[in-house]
Amino acid sequence: MPKRFVVAASEFPDLPRFPAGFELAESLTAAAQHLHGTRTPDATMNAAVELAVRLLPGADHAGIAEIQRGGRLRTLAWTDETVRFAAEPRHGGQGPHPDWERLWATPVVGTADSDADGGGNTLSGLGLRSALSLRLRADRRRLTVLTAYARKPQAFDEDATRIGRLFTAHVSLALDSATVREQLTEAMRTRDLIGQATGILMERMDIDAAGAFESLVKASQRENVKLRDLARRIVDANTGPGGRGVNER
Fold this sequence. Notes:
By secondary structure, the chain is an alpha+beta fold. The protein is built from 7 helices and 5 strands. A 5-stranded antiparallel sheet has the order 2-1-5-4-3, sandwiched between helices. The longest helix has 48 residues, at 158-205. The protein is elongated and about 75 Å long. Mean pLDDT is 84; it is low at 1-10 and 243-249.
């Protein structure tokens, strides 16, 4: 199951709501500082949805979703339960935003009025009349999208779109930085884990470090298990009651 986040509306009391003029530059700078101060991608997205409501003129709610080729969707962050129900596919169907498919080719799509043509869609049913979706990330397999929602129709004008694009540029950079930090942290943890497993094999098999690492790699390939997972298994087995490592050459 994907992680979900609900954000308190008072988390960023120092930022003006819907800034204009010179306040916009100051607010975007403050928002960037908040975003780059986060340490994980989850925390970055958590902050981004809250900041989006404060910065984008007309926004009442915001959420971040990941869309895979073919339409599969999962929600990553939201400001409130309204956005949760707006983003989640209903009854196993596709998500409520068919225009999101256009984000593979364009950075912004919008819904001016969900009640147009008689309504009857998910957004209209939740009282969300407008939506502004902005692409955060894209590769061949998936899109990451930040969407702002409003309770009135035609809420997002050119100014909101311009501010949204500036804001999502900051979010994308912060998200990339947080992802790299998380990957480096995981790499360090994995290296330490593999080092511990190698040391255990050296002791139990009376071999040098190169031989122990080679034994670990061969066991990983033979069992079709990731090296870090096999290393964790060895360490856990060695530290448990009457611990015994694996004896693989």
